[in-house]
Amino acid sequence: MKTFDYVRADDAVAAAGKVGEVAGARFIAGGTNLLDLMKLQVETPERLVDISRLPLRDIAETGDGALRIGALVPNSDLAADPRIRRDYAVLSRALLAGASGQLRNKATTAGNLLQRTRCGYFYEPASACNKREPGAGCDGMKGFNRILAILGTSQHCIATHPSDMAVAMRLLDAVIETVDAKGQERRIPIAEFHRQPGDTPHIESSLRPDELITAVTLPKPLAGRHIYRKVRDRASYAFALLSIAAVVDMEDGRMADVRLAFGGIGTVPWRSAELERHLKGQRPDAALFSKASDLLLADAHGYGDNDFKFDLVRRTLPAVLQEATRGDGA
Ligand SMILES: Cc1cc2nc3c(=O)[nH]c(=O)nc-3n(C[C@H](O)[C@H](O)[C@H](O)COP(=O)(O)OP(=O)(O)OC[C@H]3O[C@@H](n4cnc5c(N)ncnc54)[C@H](O)[C@@H]3O)c2cc1C
Q1: If you write DSSP's letter for every residue of 109-175 in order, what string do you get?
Q2: Does residue 193's CB lie within 6 angstroms of at least one atom of ligand 1?
Q3: Which of 244, 329, 252, 327 is nearest to 288 (CA)?
Q4: Which atom of ligand 1 is nearest to the CA of 104?
Q5: Model confidence, pTM
Q6: What are 253-312's pLDDT values in tens digits?
Q7: How far is the CA of 106 from the centre of ligand 1 (A)?
Q8: Is the pLDDT of residue 237 over 90?
Q9: Which residue of 80, 114, 233, 320 sits 20 to 30 Å from the alpha carbon of 264, by its own alpha carbon?
């Protein structure tokens, strides 16, 4: 067991300061991911700054139609909030598709966004992993890569981002709010938050080391049918092989607005503007839906065991689009 400091802070800026003053220090919120990684010595922080008692547990309307979610709101409270269930159903459904009841009671909004990949090679210190040890190589590329990514991969890493919640938040264009040790605040659109691996797979987000997430803001609700479909090996308590978040608003038999985001296949929560443009304004149609899968997969790359994800997308995406448009067109 590697020893580490454990400290608490009274406010958000002080917490950021306590992380900023020790290289490799980490915030700990629910601890459901970080503690597992520490037990395996995948993460070996010199200091843990416990933020779990900071007053960041409110869900509040902002006055301009948005909803601000405190960084420490537990996943179960967020999923059950009446405003989330009514106005952001895709998010509530994504949260309930993740983990288990006990875990969702502990897991926090910010911790969920920053949870690390479930790639088996990342969790196994005897394996080569560029994310865990930059420059070591990637055993996942030629190994057992069934759960790994086909979109956004690089020659250094093919690990998926495992979060369900983040997929729905990507669809909703959530904005992540932070504060640093000097008290400077930042608002980061979720599209710029998670980083694809490129040459630096160990850098997973655009957060600076001393930046604390304080809240996540959801813009005004989206009209239309909200769906979250998760395909996995077991009916519960399993990470996505593929997940699709969809919000489709129909007008006069056409898809007036279409938003889609994907989990389980990308190195980050995935969205394709081209795909959404292809569908927007169109009438539901089997050929159109089939072309949608082709567009999504145009730049995808399979690594052997995970090649089945191409077929999985080709079957699941049209089914989700059919469900989203059912009764309003073809
Ligand atoms: C068995 C199991 C099954 C699971 N299944 C699923 C699933 O199906 N779908 C899914 O989406 N998730 C799943 N999870 C993951 C779970 O959702 C995450 O572990 C959880 O959301 C992490 O939240 P936490 O508050 O416990 O984070 P922690 O473990 O406390 O922290 C995680 C990371 O976030 C950082 N952090 C936390 N809060 C902040 C903050 N405010 N500012 C900056 N950094 C911060 C920490 O430093 C750490 O690096 C599963 C987990 C387990 C153990």
Answers
A1: HHHHHHPPP--HHHH-TTS-BTTTSTTS-BTTTTS--TTS-SBS-BTTB-PPP--SHHHHHHHTT-E
A2: no
A3: 329
A4: 17
A5: 0.98
A6: 999 999 999 999 999 999 999 999 999 999 999 999 999 999 999 999 999 999 999 999
A7: 9
A8: no
A9: 80
Tokens 């999985």, located at residue: 312
Which of 170, 166, 158, 171 shows the shortest CA–CA distance to 128? 158
C-alpha to C-alpha distances, 108 to 209, 213, 252, 314, nearest whole angstrom: 19, 11, 40, 33
Name the 3-class secondary structure at 206.
coil
Are residues 118 and 267 in contact, defined by beta-carbon separation less than 8 angstroms? Answer: no
Atom index in ligand 1 nearest the CA of residue 35 equals: 29
Q: Is the CB of 112 under 6 A from ligand 1?
A: yes
Residue nearest to atom 11 of ligand 1 (CA): 163
Could you tell me the strand order of the sheet in which 225-231 lies? Answer: 225-231, 242-251, 254-263
* Minimal-distance CA residue to ligand 1 atom 37: 111
Decide whether any atom of ligand 1 lies within 6 Å of the 107 Cβ: yes
Catalogue all structural domains in the chain, each as residue range(s) with its CATH number.
Answer: 225-324 (3.30.390.50)
Pocket of ligand 1 contains residue 57 by CB under 6 Å: no
